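For the sake of transparency, this paper describes our internal protein records without simplification. The remainder of this section carries one protein's record, kept here as part of the documentation:
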Amino acid sequence: MVASWLDGLAWLRQCFPRLIVFVLVVLAGFAFQSERRQNPRWTSPYYSAAANFQPGRGFYFDVEDAKQHCRLQHYGKEREYRFRRSENLTRHDRKAFGYVYVILLATTLFGWLLGDIQSLLTMQILAHAATTVVAMGYLKSQAARTTLVVIYGINPLIIHFVTLNYYYFWQMIPSLALVALHFKRSRHSTLAWTVWAMALAMIVSVRPTTIGAVGLVFIGLYKQVSWSRALLPLVVCVTTFHLIDFGHDQNPWHSAYIGVGAYSNPYMGSLDDGHGYRLMELKTGVKLNIEIGGNYYIDSIRDRYREVTRSEYFRILGESPLLLAKNALVNVLSSFSVGYASGMPDPVNYAIAFSGILILGLLLVLREYWMVLAIGSTSITFAPYYPPVQAYMFGSFLLLSFIAAKFVFDDRHLSRAWTRLNRRRENERLAEETNSLLQTPTQGM
């Protein structure tokens, strides 16, 4: 009996610091909650679809309810808004469906108390706190854990993206799995990795560009354990994805075309969706209306827009292949740093890309090859044609923060380098003194 009490106390002592960190990150999340939001024309259909969810039916939402939400024009009121169930629904196959499940879970947990958007933000804050606590567990020293909490868990810049009412935050799921594999945690039970597999299937449905990072997770799992143990989670992931996802009709050529404007070029002046819409009007005479219910969602017009942007992108590729190659290189290098700074002049983004070279080089020198692949996998699906804007970089932020804490304190690379530098200086000083003594003439007796 006494032994069990002692074991319980030991467990509480072990968990108490993590509980404190969890509470601290949650408080920081609400204190630094961002007042910026994604335009409701893009987000409202998700929330309406969650309010009208039926298993197996696909993406259906109430257009009028979504328009009503867009007309609020005040983020406080938007956060408090509760989307209604309706019989007047419209099919919407332009967006990936997975985020509907996330919103449905959030409104189920907190919708009795909060509006739909605030329910989602609350769940994202709690998930961010849990992620920070789990990632801490992979670090050895208290200094490294504290560093991770400061630069990731309670960092207002990170919390800005945590509390953005869109799906970017959930890119951290494959990143956390990649951290686990970095520490050979493939030894976890097959059941644990099967649960991971379902979460990975969900994030691909939420944000399809995470397929690169998710694929690397299964490659790492296969390399660390037998193929038979890796096969079951892979099958579960693929099966789950096919069960929960209903497909979507995105236009990648829109992103590829406007991505040309990320840096100075003779074709467009900035990174702006409007360049694509104006191109459509110039080439076809059709003015796109991107508001909910506008002609942007008509199949025939979407098909024409896809063809227009595809043709123009390949025209630019034919005329300026080196320009697009340079853009792709800068994009990829920037993804190893803080990402593309929207609205900033080229020198700033080239400096960010240069810092990415330094970080990449440092990881290669330290033989952190897995982390090189992990960071690269979070943006490789879009960086060759579109800049890694910071919202898209959320999966990388966890990896970069983690490797910084590990590098400085757990691996002690900086302290070791400083010790080697001091030792080298001391040896040089002793050598100079020795040479000075040897060169000093001795006086005769």
Observations:
- The mean pLDDT is 87.
- DSSP finds 20 helices and two strands in the chain.
- The two ends are 86 Å apart (CA to CA).
- Residues 14-165 form one domain.
